[in-house]
Amino acid sequence: MFRTIALAALLAPSTVVLSQRVSYPHPLTGSDLPEWVRAMYAPDADPEAVQAAYDAYYATHPFVKNNHTQYFKRWKRELGHDLEPKDPQQRAA
Length: 93
Description:
mainly alpha; 5 helices
């Protein structure tokens, strides 16, 4: 009984560590990538410009889910807290 509990206690943290995968940006390969993808991976990416390029691209192209669109969602979610105005006056505008 003690061995079973000890084994479970040793293995439990390893399953938690393995389940926490971190998402990293994908490398830019090929010149056929849309402008919004290149803008998003730029070192000084402007979130508003990337969103505008994304919207413009998918206004004329069918949406295809891929690594870049998935990272775009995560990137926006991560930036979301920083982009939201802290001042209630600005949020109301």
